[in-house]
């Protein structure tokens, strides 16, 4: 047996590296296993961070070419330098991953480089060397779900990884899946000049979000030039030198049709990645979707082995994994780590952005809850008008009796930032009245949140 640790975390994504750092802060001797050449996992290397870099760059291009003239700023001869755009994305990724490496050194977290397996409880093997660990945390993240009949080659048929690395703007990009990842990358390439079609099996985009938001979102994206084919499934793909031909069928059954694309992005979701760890051999329980089964304190059925993040049940979001990483470390240190799963925001970083937290109207109706609704449009918000970004609205759902905020759904400029106000309100059990009576700066986008809170009680001021 080689070196011994209080904690070995397997995986250095947002959940894993945060867990490792927090545990080290709490006085544990910690190691973190990562097989990539850089830290940060999918999020920092091929997910959240590079996609946001490209989204931001493409937004600048879109604004310069189509919107600045409205502000009296005339720019002629606008063109894309895609190689530079991609290089900048790489620089952003590198600075973030190197930042995690610095934090490991600062907090004395040992980076064990290579793939890990768990030969027995209390043991982790990395590249032929076995280490002892009092506690083991599985934080191995997730991978793209494959689609039968559509074979990914990361060139013509790509996952989000390949979709971030295209060296030229495709003539026609077909996105399979109308969720966060597909719509964000579809927006990038649409802004840069591609024709984009989104094919979704269900009857609306972002199906996990509030249906009213989904319907309005579809209309806004349509105005931007993104086409949608809802209630449609993709049953096959044929590749040729000049592109890919997809076979589409109505979800409810019916005649098939063909759709030609230069590049196809498969974005139908993600699944837990736990392969190669040897979990079955040591008896760690997995559920029907391959996720590690844990209790409320992230413990598996095998003493000393825990799991967090995308590897377990719950939304596959980097910030959810981070919160679990902190809670996990604090639980192991004898503290009372806790995550409020009712107050985890989700954001689609298109423009306008779409953000959601808590329950949707559909969920409230399903459980028979009595609730009130307050809505306020950005067309009536002074700052949004000054910016020229008036698409969307804020919607707040509150308990009919107690007025406690149960959920909020925002489509509009900087929705991902605005939702944080509601996250804090929900974390502290605030009412819509509490939000409404909080002074908001003028003119600000946040005033739309205040007005929506006022609207819960039927007394919005500016509509």
What ranges have pLDDT less than 50 throughout 5 or more consecutive residues? Answer: none
- CATH fold group of the largest domain: FAD/NAD(P)-binding domain
Could you name the CATH class of the largest domain? Alpha Beta
Q: What is the beta-strand fraction? A: 25-35%
- By DSSP, the count of extended strands is 22
In short:
The protein is an alpha/beta fold and 463 residues long. It has helices at residues 14-25, 41-46, 48-67, 82-106, 160-163, 180-191, 211-223, 279-282, 318-332, 361-366, 382-387, 415-427, 432-436, 447-456; strands at 4-10, 30-34, 110-113, 116-120, 123-126, 129-138, 142-144, 157-158, 172-176, 195-199, 226-229, 232-240, 243-250, 257-261, 263-266, 270-272, 305-307, 346-348, 353-358, 371-377, 393-399, 405-412.
How do the helices and strands line up, and which of them pair or pack?
Elements: E1 4-10, H1 14-25, E2 30-34, H2 41-46, H3 48-67, H4 82-106, E3 110-113, E4 116-120, E5 123-126, E6 129-138, E7 142-144, E8 157-158, H5 160-163, E9 172-176, H6 180-191, E10 195-199, H7 211-223, E11 226-229, E12 232-240, E13 243-250, E14 257-261, E15 263-266, E16 270-272, H8 279-282, E17 305-307, H9 318-332, E18 346-348, E19 353-358, H10 361-366, E20 371-377, H11 382-387, E21 393-399, E22 405-412, H12 415-427, H13 432-436, H14 447-456
Parallel strand pairs: 1-2, 1-6, 2-3, 6-17, 8-15, 9-10, 9-15, 10-11
Antiparallel strand pairs: 4-5, 5-6, 7-16, 12-13, 13-14, 18-19, 19-22, 20-21, 21-22
Helix pairs in contact: 1-9, 3-4, 3-6
């Amino acid at each position: 047996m080689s070196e011994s640790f209080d904690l070995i975390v397997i995986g250095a994504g947002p959940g894993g590296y945060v867990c490792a750092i927090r545990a080290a802060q709490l006085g544990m001797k910690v190691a973190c296993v990562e097989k990539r050449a850089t830290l940060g996992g999918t999020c920092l290397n091929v997910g959240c961070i590079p996609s946001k870099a490209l989204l931001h760059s493409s937004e600048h291009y879109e604004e310069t070419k189509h919107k600045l003239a409205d502000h009296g700023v005339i720019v002629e001869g606008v063109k894309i330098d895609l190689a530079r755009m991609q290089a900048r994305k790489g620089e952003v990724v590198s600075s973030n991953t190197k930042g995690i490496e610095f934090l490991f050194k600062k907090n004395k977290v040992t980076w064990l480089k290579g793939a890990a397996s768990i030969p027995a409880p209390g043991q982790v093997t990395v590249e032929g060397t076995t280490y002892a660990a009092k506690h083991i945390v599985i934080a191995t993240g997730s991978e793209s779900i494959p689609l039968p009949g559509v074979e990914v080659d990361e060139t013509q048929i790509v996952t989000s990884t390949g979709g971030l690395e295209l060296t030229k703007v495709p003539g026609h990009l077909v996105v399979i899946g109308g969720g966060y990842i597909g719509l964000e990358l579809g927006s990038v390439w649409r802004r840069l000049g591609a024709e984009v079609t989104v094919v979704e099996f269900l009857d609306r985009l972002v199906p996990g979000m509030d249906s009213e938001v989904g319907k309005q979102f579809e209309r806004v994206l349509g105005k931007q030039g993104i086409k949608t084919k809802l209630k449609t499934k993709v049953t096959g793909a044929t590749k040729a030198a000049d592109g890919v031909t997809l076979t589409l069928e109505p979800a409810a059954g019916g005649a098939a049709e063909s759709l030609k694309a230069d590049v196809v992005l498969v974005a139908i979701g993600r699944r837990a990645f736990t392969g190669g760890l040897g979990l079955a051999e040591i008896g760690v329980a997995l559920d029907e979707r391959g996720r590690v089964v844990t209790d409320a304190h992230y413990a598996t059925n095998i003493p000393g082995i825990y799991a967090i993040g995308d590897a377990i049940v719950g939304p596959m979001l980097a910030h959810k994994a981070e919160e679990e990483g902190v809670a996990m470390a604090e639980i192991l240190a004898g503290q009372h780590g806790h995550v409020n799963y009712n107050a985890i925001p989700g954001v689609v970083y298109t423009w306008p952005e779409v953000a959601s937290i808590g329950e949707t109207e559909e969920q409230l109706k399903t459980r028979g809850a009595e609730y009130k609704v307050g809505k306020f449009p950005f067309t009536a918000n002074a700052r949004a008008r000054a910016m020229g970004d008036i698409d969307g609205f804020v919607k707040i759902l509150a308990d009919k009796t107690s007025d406690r905020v149960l959920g909020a759904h925002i489509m509009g400029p900087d929705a991902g930032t605005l939702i944080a106000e509601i996250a804090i309100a929900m974390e502290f059990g605030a009412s819509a009245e509490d939000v409404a009576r909080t002074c908001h700066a003028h003119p600000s986008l946040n005033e739309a949140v205040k007005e929506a809170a006022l609207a819960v009680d039927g007394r919005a001021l500016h509509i």
